[in-house]
Design brief:
This protein is an alpha+beta fold. It is built from ten helices and twelve strands. α3 (about 60-65) packs antiparallel against α4. The longest helix has 16 residues, at about 265-280. It is an enzyme of class 2 (transferase). Its EC number is 2.7.7.9. Pfam families: NTP_transferase (PF00483). GO terms for molecular function: UTP:glucose-1-phosphate uridylyltransferase activity.
């Protein structure tokens, strides 16, 4: 529902909120394409038709831009969008907000055989090689069924994450014997937290079908993965990159500032702001 970004998300789905000029969902589309994902399944809500409109190539808009001499912009939009003649795309609806696990289950009948990847647009991960590409490369050789992207977080923030109980480390992998959703800081088994990238054995759908509602009365993906521990190997993957929680205002602002700082065209904006702030502090 994007409640933390109301009133903006009353009209604009949070997945379409821009980081500078690029909507959050575009980052995960590009990450999935770069990783060679064969079929993209978008789990959406009927009220968010703007997402489907954004994702797909808009032929009429492209033609209008070309007629107005904006060919470069038209090409950029064409390259960003998905084309059904070139990409295997499915849209499904989750009619009620019953949790991430339930959202994934909505995609079950459309998933291809084998492992599936899950990407959450709220988590913006910037890296040279995409986080999912890194994970797929590791997944191909590691003896693991479920692989979860992880990072170390301050202990006082663990209650915002799913947290691993770690049995052993193996380079970038942390094999776990337990997984706890949003534990109290003093009860958390570690500070290794799960963020929004997963590679899951196809059997996760059967586990989710059996999964009872957990925190908030929702079907939690974390609970389903935890239920598989013992019969399936589960490991966290320490990716290389910088992650921003763009489901929060401070995370979104941090992402905006970080990317603006990397772009020369915004150097004067950052410089003017810092200069003015310094002058105000002196005054």
């Amino acid at each position: 529902m994007g409640t933390r970004f109301l009133p903006a998300t009353k009209a604009v789905p949070k997945e379409l909120l821009p980081v500078l000029d690029t909507p959050l969902i575009q980052y995960v589309i590009d990450e999935a394409r770069d990783a060679g994902i064969e079929r993209m399944i978008f789990v959406n809500h009927p009220s968010k038709s703007a997402i489907e409109h954004y994702v797909m190539h808009d032929i009429a808009l492209g033609e209008t831009l070309c007629q107005r001499g904006k060919n470069k912009l038209a090409q950029q939009l064409h390259d960003a969008a998905l084309d059904e003649s070139k990409h295997d795309i499915v849209f499904v609806h989750q009619h009620q907000p019953l949790g991430l696990g339930h959202a994934i289950l909505c995609a079950a009948e459309h998933a291809l055989p084998g492992a599936v990847a899950v990407l959450l647009p709220d988590d913006l991960i910037l890296s040279g090689k995409g986080c999912l590409s890194q994970m797929i490369e590791a997944y191909k050789t590691a003896p693991v069924d479920h692989m979860l992207a992880t990072l170390e977080v301050p202990r006082e923030t663990v209650s915002s994450y799913g947290v691993l109980s770690i049995a052993k480390h193996d380079n970038a992998l942390a094999y776990c014997d337990g997984l706890v959703e949003k534990p109290d800081a003093d009860l958390a088994p570690s500070t290794t937290a799960v963020v929004g990238r997963y590679i899951l054995d196809g059997g996760i759908f059967d586990t989710l079908r059996r999964q009872k509602p957990g925190a908030g009365g929702e079907i939690q993906l974390t609970d389903a993965i935890a239920a598989d521990i013992g019969t399936k190997s589960v490991a966290g993957y320490r990716f290389i990159g910088k992650r921003f929680d763009c489901g929060s205002k401070d995370g979104m602002l941090s992402a905006q500032l970080f990317l603006a700082q990397q772009d020369a065209q915004f150097a004067h904006v950052i410089g003017d702001f810092l200069s003015a702030n310094q002058q105000m502090s002196v005054a």
